[in-house]
Amino acid sequence: MSALVAVALLATACGTPKKELTTGSISSSAASPRAVQTMTEPELRAAASSVGAAYEKNPGDKTNGLNYANLLRMTGKNEQSLAVMQQLAIRFPTDREVLAAYGKAQAAAGQLEQALATIGRAQTPDRPDWRLKSAEGAILDQLGRSAEARQAYRNALDIKPNDPSVLSNLGMSYLLTKDLKTAETYLRSAAAQPGADSGVRQNLALAVGLQGRFDEAERIASAELSPAQAQDNVRYLRAMLAQQNSWKQLASQDTRSPTAQKVN
After folding, report:
1. Which listed residue, 71, 122, 134, 207, has the most CB atoms within 10 A of its CB?
2. 96 Cβ partners below 8 Å, 6+ apart?
3. Is the pTM of this model over 0.90?
4. Which of 99, 57, 89, 81 is nearest to 7 (CA)?
5. Residue 38: DSSP 8-state
């Protein structure tokens, strides 16, 4: 469902439970992060083609490479995104931004243990980066290590209090273990923060809908999506919850299922 595809486990940090790593941002040379998040799939593919052409002309340009890998990941081309990031990591082996993006690409491609090691290499104990802490949490959630993941998110919040992307990731961590009330609490807090984006509010809509409050979930989703898309999401939720093993189904999908996204 295209309305549900977005980005997931790592935003600026970061996506499965399998939430992919959230989208992060791409520089103004391509489009603003908020503009990218509201693009349709055809628009994302067009942006990837344009940025890809610039990357091919100069594969050593870090900004173009990061932008291209991010757009590839957002359009589901995880293996190609990883290949781009592998080349960048060779060219910039100690660059924290490159290593962080490389870890996201590895996680999106299913290389979770390798991603965790790469994120660890990017982190420095004397100057810890909250985005990397949140990315670490997203990967740990995908590995099923929820207690460690939540500690990583709280460490990120110690550095960057009330960051909406980290609060959203923390809420989604609780959602994955079926603690919906706690998940909703963190997601409402995330949505109330300045700078909260569409992904955060869609995650809140998901948590509300999973508790059977479909009308409220649709109202929240309608603030970000078209009425038809919001209704489509709610219909998907209703159908999923009517099936047996729906939680197993939720956890096995890229939380790009009904609007779920890990946000970095």
Report:
1. 134
2. 122, 123, 124, 129, 132
3. no
4. 81
5. T
